[in-house]
Design goal:
- The two termini are 32 Å apart.
- This protein has helices at residues 3-7, 9-22, 55-62, 67-86, 136-139, 146-162, 172-181, 187-190, 196-205, and strands at 33-39, 42-47, 52-54, 89-90, 99-102, 107-109, 116-117.
- The strands form 3 sheets. The chain has a 3-stranded antiparallel β-sheet with strand order 3-5-6. A two-stranded antiparallel sheet has the order 1-2. The protein has a two-stranded antiparallel ribbon with strand order 4-7.
- Helix 6 (146-162) crosses helix 9 (196-205).
- It contains 9 helices and 7 strands, in the order ααβββααββββααααα.
- Helix content is 42%, strand content 12%.
- It is α+β, with helices and mostly antiparallel strands.
């Protein structure tokens, strides 16, 4: 982990707390976090080894997944995310690069290192994560909840279903503008034979208003 972390007592204490919570998330679709330790003052995190490929590289390599495969991957991501949310853990950095697919086709949601207990997330920490996959409320520094992860989930589903990102922007202000305008190309215009139900799910996940998104990952 970054050396700065070992020099920031409050941040390190917070990280230890998050690891303790992450260790409680035991689910086949979540990469297990084992422990935190240090070597010569540098903290490290140990976690389950997953022999596979992340979804970002899968999409780069083959483009969109078949509809059946995308649906199966989506089901597994949802199951893992729901298990974390049940423990009060918000991922906050859900993106294709943080979802692994092993050789048997099993999905693991990875890297809960940025995750936090919903009730303790405040201030600058709200902006922690990868802007391209942030929910609108996270991007502008408002409250982050399980619904924020569901927005990020919608972006992943859009990408694996169409082979393209729902929003392309080179700067954070541009991303905020695109999110505000809600100008997202309907997936069915990119994939002609897309199941209307799957499209409705993706569009609901990407609602700007969190209350309009699905109630849970399940």
């Amino acid at each position: 982990l970054p050396q700065e972390l070992s020099e920031d007592v409050a941040a390190l204490a917070r990280f230890h707390s998050e690891v303790r919570i992450a260790r409680q998330v035991s689910h086949p679709n979540v990469c297990r976090v084992f422990d935190i330790g240090d070597v010569e003052g540098i903290p490290f995190l140990s976690m389950e080894y997953v022999d596979g490929e992340d979804l970002a590289s899968v999409v780069r390599r083959i483009g969109r997944l078949s509809q059946d495969k995308a649906t199966e991957v989506a089901r597994q991501i949802c199951a893992g995310l729901a298990a974390a949310h049940d423990r009060g853990v918000i991922h906050r950095d859900l993106k294709p690069a943080n979802v692994m697919l092993d050789g048997a086709g099993k999905v693991r949601v990875m890297y809960f290192g940025l995750a936090g207990i919903a009730a303790t997330i405040h201030g600058a920490e709200i902006r922690a994560g990868t802007p391209a996959y942030m929910a609108p409320e996270q991007l502008v520094g408002k409250e982050v909840t399980a619904k924020s992860d569901i927005y990020s989930l919608g972006l992943i589903l859009y990408e694996i279903t169409t082979g393209k990102r729902a929003l392309e922007a080179s700067t954070v202000p541009e991303l905020i503008r695109l999110r505000d305008e809600g100008q997202i190309t309907q997936p069915s215009t990119l994939v002609r034979d897309l199941d209307p139900l799957l499209e409705r799910v993706i569009v609901r996940c990407l609602a700007k208003d969190p209350s309009q998104r699905p109630a849970s990952a399940l």
